[in-house]
Amino acid sequence: MTAELKYSVLMSVYHKEKAEYLKLAIESMLKQTVLPDQIVLVEDGPLNENLDAVIAEYENNPVFTVVKLKENVGLGRALDEGLKYCRNELVARMDSDDISLPQRCEKELALFAEDQNLEIVSGAIAEFETDPSNIKSHRVVPAEDPEIRRQMRRRSAFNHPAVMYKKSAVLRCGGYGGSLRKEDHDLFSRMVNMGCHARNLQEDILLYRTGENAIRRRKSWKNISSYLEIMWVTYKRGYCSLWDVIYVDAAQLFYFIAPVGLINFLLKKFFRK
């Protein structure tokens, strides 16, 4: 029955991405055991010669829909624009530097086939630094709806690059919005608190590129301040308590000032398996 469900893939790429990573990401979606009906690739502003060359390899493939934005608008707004071009109700998110495992979408589709009320799913991801065969850690997310709602009060209960959702549900909840950082947490918080039913697979479905460079990007004040802002908005919506806001604010400020090595150790010790 899963093969009968059609889905679109939604990706975004900007000029700082690496061409070889983009190609691996695209190929991983073209090697799914249930193939996508459509791949929507958003060019978030002008790219570079190497990225253009990779995309040119696929532009004549009828599965691909390439959306070109005149300027870099950020991931959230780029995904909102790309979502307009997705022709299927089910949409699988994919980042331009990760690798989906072959059965990822088949397993997610099986959940949607099993439960007609489901509107968002994801699964565990395996983290690597340079070699995808050398897994450093696993990021597991809560399985069922009550646990998911509880975790969303402080941090995302979904692995965004491994998410599959219903387009209508995302649009009903307002899309990603204009936030330049943490747009996924903002969207998923709105979705689960506006009644969207969710589940997560407890097995790895995607290989996620990480390492100290990724930590340094997340340590930027722009990223930290965006998280703090979204937590305050979440509190004003009534989706979390003031204690949740204080807890997250303190954790993020520590994240900002702590050395990269210490953060890497703590993440693997307490938040990864």
Describe the structure concisely for a colleague:
With 273 residues, the protein is an alpha/beta fold. It has eleven helices and nine strands. The radius of gyration is 18 Å and the shape is globular.
Q: How much helical structure, as a percent, in the residues?
A: 40-55%
How many angstroms does the end-to-end distance come to?
33 Å
Instruction: Compute the average pLDDT.
Output: 91
Biggest sheet details: 9 strands, mixed
Strand tally is: 9
Q: Could you give the order of the helices and strands? A: EHEHEHEEHEEHEHHEHHHH
So what's the overall shape? globular
Could you say which structural class the secondary elements and strand pairing correspond to? alpha/beta
Strand content: 15-25%
Q: Unreliable stretches, pLDDT < 50, 5 or more residues?
A: none
Rg over alpha carbons: 18 Å
Tally of DSSP helical segments: 11
